[in-house]
Write a structure and sequence with these properties.
15 strands, alpha+beta, Trigger factor, domain 2, 14 helices, 43% helix, Chitinase A, domain 3, Alpha-Beta Plaits
Length: 463
């Protein structure tokens, strides 16, 4: 594609990209638009769809066809300009384009966009960072065994009044102002007394119920109930108790281990659980150490982050959530209603995460530049390897990325991951007890303890 760009730095972490699309490229798009029109035009002496582009231009006028050509071409040219300029945009760019070009003239337009702020590095190699010493207390093993035991519990009918922890087999039918409502009726529903399965008051009204009893439950739906047509309304439920069931837990002995695992004894089962918990604790310790090392490097750097760019990134974060919800068949607006938030409030809640992410990315870019970190084809091919059990051709995919001019995006991601690895691998771990270990909210350093709110952030190479 015949397109050139020139980047000018602006204040407050912004740039202006001046893009020029050659007259030849514009003419090609103009001809393509004319051919699209020709498919629907009827012209004496020509079959439908066979009208020459020049006749289409004469009939409709160059301006009308140019408008369609720009509609088709601008998204592609706009994206190419951003890629060619090698900037890292944050938020929505502002496009400014003057009048369409005259015949034989190139198309010129500008893009103004916020970019990732630059960081002035402090210390980032050889950092002393606290690292938790993984340990598995007996209580953790007991809890895991108890979870297994709970999952194998039996429910046996009893002839007595129900108490918290029992299960009731019930039929119920709800009414509002004497009329049934959607979702208000069920049969053979198994309800655990003491749980929060229903709205407040329902569970409590069935305490002491016995098999064969019928109870009338009167309550109000909460004002903030997710189904708006029920919110705040009084309801009456007729509940038929069909059975009271008592939960019976199996004995913890060797038979339990043999029946429910690959081990013959309870001691062997506990040893296996300890091993798995220890492995998980080691993984958490490594993750916490990585996060703490990167956070320490970020705190040592100087970065000016404007409120405008933080809001732009926070908006991007929320838009990612919206896309994720939509991909799972959920309406983002309905999701917000359930959460009791507006879109603006959701974006505002992402500000802290957005700012922390911008700071970390800026520092990693600065480290990659300072260390002259490069990315090889082998590293890109490795990054494009399909997950286990899935098919894919990394060579073809990389070739396509290069054809589309997108290989720089992949290379930059790998470059930042390598910068993060450099910080972590050069850091000096200082063992500390688990109870005092650094977390995303509390980062330990040899000089003392401090607070550094980080949030659950993605970082290159992070889990």
């Amino acid at each position: 594609m015949e397109l050139t760009t020139e980047v000018t730095d602006l204040p407050d972490s912004k740039v202006k990209i001046a893009a020029t699309v050659s007259s030849g490229e514009v003419d090609r798009k103009l001809e393509h638009a004319a051919r699209d029109y020709a498919r629907e035009m009827k012209f004496p002496g020509f079959r439908k769809g066979k009208v020459p582009p020049q006749l289409v231009l004469q009939r409709l006028g160059r301006d009308a066809v140019m408008e369609q050509a720009l509609r088709e071409g601008l998204p592609e040219w706009y994206e190419r300009a951003l890629l060619d300029s090698k900037v890292s945009p944050v938020g929505d760019p502002k496009l400014d384009m003057p009048d369409p070009p005259a015949e034989g003239e190139p198309l010129e337009f500008t893009i103004e966009v916020s970019v990732r702020p630059e960081a002035k590095l402090g210390e980032y190699k050889g950092l002393e960072v606290g690292k938790p010493e993984p340990e598995v207390p007996e209580e953790a093993i007991d809890a895991e065994v108890e979870r297994m035991r709970e999952s194998m519990a039996g429910l046996n009918p009893v002839e007595r009044a129900a108490t918290s922890g029992d299960y009731l087999l019930i039929d119920y039918a709800g009414e509002i102002e004497g009329e049934p409502f959607d979702g208000g009726t069920s049969t053979d529903y198994l309800l655990e007394l003491g749980s929060n399965e229903f709205i407040a008051g329902f569970n409590e009204a069935l305490e002491g119920a016995e098999s064969g009893q019928e109870r009338l439950v009167e309550l109000n739906f909460p004002d903030e109930y997710h189904a708006e047509h029920l919110a705040g309304k009084p309801a009456t439920f007729k509940v038929q108790v069909k059975e009271v069931r008592e939960k019976t837990l199996p004995e913890l002995d060797d038979d339990f281990a043999a029946d429910n695992s690959d081990f013959d004894t309870l001691a062997e089962l506990r040893a296996d659980i300890e091993h798995r918990l220890e492995h998980a604790a080691e993984h958490r310790a490594e993750h916490a150490f990585r996060d703490a090392a990167l956070t320490t490097a970020v705190e040592a750097a100087e970065i000016e982050v404007s409120e405008e760019i933080v809001t732009a990134r926070a908006t991007e974060v929320w838009e990612g959530v919206e896309r994720s919800l939509a991909s799972r068949g959920m309406d983002p607006e309905a999701y917000l209603k359930i959460q009791g938030k507006t879109r603006e409030e959701a974006i505002a809640e992402s500000h802290e995460e957005a700012e922390a992410g911008l700071r970390r990315e800026s520092v990693l870019v600065a480290i990659a530049d300072a260390e002259e970190i490069a990315v090889t084809d082998e590293e890109m091919l490795e990054a494009l390897q399909p997950p286990a059990g899935q098919k894919g051709n990394p060579e073809k995919l990389l070739k396509r990325l290069r054809t589309e001019g997108r290989e720089e995006l992949l290379a930059e991601e790998i470059r930042l991951r390598k910068a993060a690895d450099l910080v972590v691998e050069s850091a000096k771990p200082v063992p500390i007890p688990v109870g005092q270990a650094e977390t995303r909210e509390e980062i330990w350093t040899p000089e003392g303890e401090g607070q550094a709110k980080g949030g659950d952030l993605w970082t290159p190479g992070g889990d």
